[in-house]
């Protein structure tokens, strides 16, 4: 292919990707599945990797890549970034409308209305259609240059779509973090014992003010435009709504809630509708912004100090309130997680009465230093469970009590353990605990566990809800009559299920161990355990220290295994299962010939066509060790698509690298 046609191909891919970004972020109407989008992106990446001279700064592959900064440079806003006046009641809205009408001397005003996003203001400067600068609001006159970070946000186009845009176009809007992304970010932080963000706004601000754009790139940020600054043309339209439609055509997302309404009544109705809709939006809003729609009228109204006279923010009632923690109780989730929940003096938060707030886990309780009797700030955001934001230590009574993790599960009485280094405490009564019943049985029946064909999640739920089974062992005493009494269960399917149950009795120790659903014990670990201990009896008797001597088993997993077998209830269920006839062939310690990969260490990296756990199990069965990081002791690196630093390291160290076909050949040669 000629250089020119390769360049044209790259450009074509970029146009396609830009267009699909627009469909996704601006129109909220993607034309192609994510996988197809990823494919286009990979194709462009491959082309650019082969021809680095063709990479352009506005290529969609160049969103991340800038080096970390020492500090942000200062940006002066040619046109200041203003703030907004507030209205906290319908009366204050009426005052605003009256003021505007008087100043303009008109009967009724046309307003544009849109949600007030709870994020942070940003200015995006496009020159000749290319994003050249992103700047925070700062004090309104001087902000910070956050261009490299802004470039990592998928919703912000690196170049404008279409043509005919002004040579200079400064778009202004809000960067925010969607609720789901925020929850996920905090969940990850909590799991790692790191600091969580108090709300999506703080999370968005903290993410945008990272000196390393690679960190910003991992944060789920989004953007809506709500105005403009410097323009090299006189205007984008006659009204705010027309101008925003133009901005949207250029490829910048505009709130889909933007509407034109007539007069004060139109504003009040819009506000009520948005208050009802608020919880169902996937981002946080703290009110509605109304703007006089006609731009000539806006100009006549002008500004007072730092805010325009032509706009107002009608705010929702506060989402935070003060109350007292009456008690802290512990709830057990379906995976056994034991979660502290604060019982509160009932308090109104944003129009809803709040009685309970989650404390997530004991680390959170310690970090926030919550005591029973404390006065606290509670926060309710949308439909998520209310949270305790912080304690007012100055209001702590002398009688305040420390929160202690119970030693026994409040639901089933089994031991509660919290392994060192884990944030979450768990009930160890996995097979027995009513709170965990459904999940335990679903897992037990699943394909990779006991593989009970035809026993799907819905059926397990019915069986548990009708109290036909209480633990997995009860499955094996189900009768045809009982099964036929269930929804959508005929004679034939009942018999099929009984047959499948019968077949499942013949299993392997590894499958059985996996089916028990011991925390952190996946397929690969089950297999290692089966091979190392050889029998269930030996494993049941093993101490934590002995367990830790097993390859790949660290202190946390060892603690979970020991705690599981320590519970009399779990042992009872296991006995019942064995009595029902579950059996497996004795595990023979394989001879040297049967372990052709003994002593070989593998690392799996990149995206492979099968789950890594599955390949790991296969390799381990042949005696190989599978580890997570590449070192000089690694014998093989199996690299899938988009393998990164591990592959580089393997190359540096001269480790043998296999693709999936290579692995197949190697496995075939051991057979
Ligand atoms: S218009 C001159 N529209 O609210 C008016 N602002 O309290 C400029 N905000 O700094 C702002 N959503 O960060 C406008 N739809 C919206 C908004 C919005 C959120 C923020 C913005 C501004 C602050 C003022």
From TrEMBL:
Its cofactor is Mg(2+); Mn(2+). Residues 592-663 form the BRCT domain. The active site is at residue 116. Coiled coil: none annotated. The keyword Iron-sulfur does not apply. It catalyses: NAD(+) + (deoxyribonucleotide)n-3'-hydroxyl + 5'-phospho-(deoxyribonucleotide)m = (deoxyribonucleotide)n+m + AMP + beta-nicotinamide D-nucleotide. It holds the Pfam family HHH_2. NAD(+) binds at residues 34-38, 83-84, 114, 137, 174, 291, 315. Keywords: DNA damage, DNA repair, DNA replication, Ligase, Magnesium, Manganese, Metal-binding, NAD, Zinc. Zn(2+) binds at residues 409, 412, 433. Its EC number is 6.5.1.2. It comes from the Bacteria. One of its GO terms (cellular component) is cytosol. One of its GO terms (biological process) is DNA repair. One of its GO terms (molecular function) is DNA ligase (NAD+) activity. Belongs to the NAD-dependent DNA ligase family. LigA subfamily. DNA ligase that catalyzes the formation of phosphodiester linkages between 5'-phosphoryl and 3'-hydroxyl groups in double-stranded DNA using NAD as a coenzyme and as the energy source for the reaction. It is essential for DNA replication and repair of damaged DNA. This is DNA ligase.
